[in-house]
Amino acid sequence: MGYFDRLKTKWDVVSNKQLFIIFVVFGITGSSSVKIARPFLDYVGLQPEVFADVFLGDALYWIIRVLAIFPLYQILLILFGSLFFQFPFFWEFEKKILRRIGFKRFFPEN
Prior knowledge:
By secondary structure, the chain is mostly helical. It contains four helices and no strands. The protein is 71% helix and 0% strand. Helix 2 packs across helix 3 and helix 3 packs antiparallel against helix 4. The chain is elongated and about 55 Å long. The model has no long low-confidence stretch (mean pLDDT 88).
């Protein structure tokens, strides 16, 4: 059994076309979340210049940026998954992630 077959079984994906669409959605979402992070932080007033006088300011800015990317990624994953008609797959994927990071009571397993 090849790698993609194991992935299809694990994710309960029925076709190679669906698997390809899922990979496309992951790619678009990752790229978009990284691209949107800086304008989002600029909008809320967290430009790199704000951290210029802070000890390890550059590192602090990047930590905040990475932390901002995480929720943006989750939202975009559902959005792009829906646009590609894969909402059920990505909603289950999101619930699994949220359970793992401590939100089990909000998303109980069936």
